[in-house]
Amino acid sequence: MISRITNSLRSIGNKYKNNKNGIAYLQSDQEMADTFKTFIATETFKSVYYNNEGDFKKFLDNSDNINGILNEAENTKYMKQKESISQVLNTQLLEMYELMHSYGGKNSYPPPLKDLPYYSMEEKLKRCLSIKETDNRGEPIEHPRGFKIHVKSSTVDHEEAGYGVYIEGEVIPGTVVALYPGDTYDGENIPPSIVRENEYMMSRYDGTIIDGRSWNKKCDELTLKSKMFKEIGTNVKPTDILCYRNPFAIGNFINHPPADDQPNVIAYAFNYRRGFPDHLVHYIPNRTITENQYFSDNSVIRRGVVLIAFKPIINSELFLNYRFNPDLPYPDWYTQPDLEEAKRRWGERRSISIHSVLNKFK
After folding, report:
1. DSSP letters for 144-169
2. What is the domain count for the chain?
3. Which of the chain's ends, N or C, has fewer CB atoms near its CB within 10 Å?
4. What is the arithmetic mean of pLDDT over 20-32?
5. Is the pTM of this model over 0.85?
6. How far is it, in rounded angstroms, from Cα 269 to Cα 212?
């Protein structure tokens, strides 16, 4: 199955290497390739749980399942792929949010490391060393699909790898395993101080930037002050801190794969829209700071990113391709899993109207 999917993705990538405009690399092409990949994963999830009683082996034993998904992916238009993906993700997220609401949320972050700030490389290295020396870890969290997720010291062997995110159990492709938390900014309107030496920045294709570093810091502060809150109270409503008690908001701890391994999750933009249940909105681990006023969508209440399993995962650490810009120097520890993919992701942004996109892919 994986080899067939890989070949399909390779053909999609080759399709976008050159285009009739003479531009070698376009971000929109990589967005379409990412959507294609995510569609395959979420269609696999649907087939396993809706047609094969949640039995992944039963799904694999029937070659018609695999062939059907790949054929459908190759014949489904881009906008229809996105629509189907959104439906699958929305169903899963409602399941995850209802579960955390049932116990009032929980902080799955490891205990804070005192006196070690986030805002310099020197302090970051001290944090990573302390994490490995003390084996500092969070509490395992039950996922609605029967496995656990756990933040603890990473297996990645370099000095900048501190925490990692682990799966305890088995995960089927297309499963949402984590959320990427953080304050969200319009990429054209973000303070330089937020960007400086910040490796927790997650960028969406629509220009939204999510700052996961600020979220780490806030969660640590709230944990350290929790005793004081209990004793003397706080001037904020209880619901105001629920966004920091989303146990699945740990995507900011997922590492880039080492040279001898490959990514097993993919990042995909998700918009929380009006109609998302009121009692669950408080748990959304994203807070809007700045937004593009010209391309705003009144139906969207929050913009986020979800991390989705692309491969079967069994008792393993999660890895995400960070896709560092190939035109800039890499850190010593970074290896590029797919150079063509990175070049497209950091390629030119083509200016086209939304109407031309919709008409082309309907």
Report:
1. TTS-EEEEEE-S--STT--EEEEEES
2. 1
3. C
4. 79
5. yes
6. 15
